[in-house]
Structure formats: C-alpha cells, structure tokens
C-alpha cells in the first residue's frame, strides 16, 4: 500500500513538473520577442496616440500661451474654412490615381517582356531594379538636373529636335511642373510593379497557355483570359501598397518643387508637414494627420471589399 502511494505521488510530481515545463515552453517565445514589441510600441504606437492627442489641442509654437484642449475645433476648421485642405486633397488624389495606373500599366508591360526568353535576361532583370534601389534624394537630384532650365538634358534634346525654341523651366512652370514630377516618380515606381508581377507570372503553368494555343487563342485572348486573371491578387496587392505609398509620398515632390509653384504640387502630406514642422502648428497639423489616416483606412477597407481580396472570399 505504501509502495502504491509512493508511486502515485511520484507520478503526480512528474506530471506537475511536465506541466510547468510545457507552460514555460509556451511563454518562452513571448519573452524573447517582448523587448522588440516594447520597442515598437515606444517608437510607433506612442507617437500615433500622441498625434490623436495633439489633434484636439491648440498647440502652435507661435502662440503657446493659447495652448490647450479645444475639442474638435481643428477638424471643424479643416472641413469648413480651409480651402488649402481641399486643394491639396484634390492634388493628392490626382497624383495617386495617375501614378498608380501608369506604374501598373508600364510595370505589366515590362514584366511581360522580362518573362520572355532572351540572352542576358538575368542581367536585364537586375538592371530593372536600379531605379527602385536608388535613394530618393539621389533620384531627386538626377531628375532636377535633367529638368533644369539651363543645363537640363530635356531642353537640350527638345531644342535639337526643333520641338521647342527656347528652354523651358519645367519645375517652375505651373503648366509643366505636375507632369514633370509625375514622370520622375513614374521612373522610380515602375520597377516595383515589374518585379512583383514578374514573380506572379512565373507561377502560371505553361500547360494553360499551351491548351489555349491548341484551341486557337491569340496573344490578346491569352492576356485577358489567362494572364490577368492569374495576376489579379498580385495586382490588387501591389496597387494597394503603391497607392498608400504614393498618397504619403513627400520626398520626391517636396525636394523637387517644395510644393510649388503656386501650390500646384502641394499634396495633403506636404501640407501637413509644412503646417506642423515649418509653421510650428502641431495641433492643426496633427488634425490633418488624423484626417489623412482616416481616409487611408476607409480606402483600404473599401478597396479590399471591392476586390474580394486580402482573405475575403467570394460569397
């Protein structure tokens, strides 16, 4: 009897020890990532909450004596009194739509070309990534020099071809500045779509194309009935990411034009940055940031719902 009780006690002790070991194994990975989570919370989460907090305050460095909570007054001013807000929003929407559509079209063309078999294909694929790998500051410098009124290559080529009779100030002319910046950003953004779509093209079975060729389908039909349906998820993913990036784009536009001339290239993020950092009105600038965040959230939800992507299945 005593031996049986002793054996039972040892069994219970062993089970308890094994249970504690399993519990320790379960929590050990969380302990390992805890420092990273805390660091991210400190660097990302806290600033986000701080922006929301400042958005309901009057916090202007030029009028600190008036600092304090004012409720939704900043938001009321944005939607009822701020004409620059609507102007910058329109420019932002125009910028995003033009950039994403053109980058998608040209990126798809480049991806289809790179998917063909030809000599030195690997080298060409690597070179396509160069614009994407170059830093934004260097890209801005290159395109600013090319658009320069006095030493720019565009004016030189167009004058030699007889298209223009005198140099054009591409980045200082209200009729050409927006298109000039669009071209520069287009050069930088096409490689993202090209490489993303090229990777998706590699997953399409060749048997599907062969079957269509047997049925007499031409290149156009194969593009619209095979290639594009197979690329749908990649296109949705790439356009969503690129739309968000272009919406928040500041470096290229600001360094090339500073939002001018006459605010023709002042997008909402640039307007928010000027209001907050350059003018010191952090309360109003934070309110603009919250509005921007809300627009992006609504856009992402509606975009994913309309495309039935991101884990959403067709009903």
Summarize the structure.
By secondary structure, the protein is mainly alpha-helical. It has 13 helices and two strands; from the N terminus they run H-E-E-H-H-H-H-H-H-H-H-H-H-H-H.
Terminal CA distance: 65 Å
> What is the radius of gyration computed over CA atoms, rounded to a whole number of angstroms?
28 Å
Please indicate the percent range of residues in DSSP E strands (runs of 2 or more). under 5%
DSSP strand tally: 2
| Coarse morphology | flat
Main sheet, how many strands, which sense, barrel?
2 strands, antiparallel
Mean pLDDT: 84
Q: What ranges have pLDDT less than 50 throughout 5 or more consecutive residues?
A: 309-315
Helix count, per DSSP? 13
What is the ordering of alpha helices and beta strands? HEEHHHHHHHHHHHH
Q: What topology, given as strand order, has the largest sheet?
A: 1-2
Structural class: mainly alpha
**Helix proportion range:** over 70%
Key terms for this structure?
2 strands, mainly alpha, 315 residues, single chain, 1% strand, two-stranded antiparallel sheet
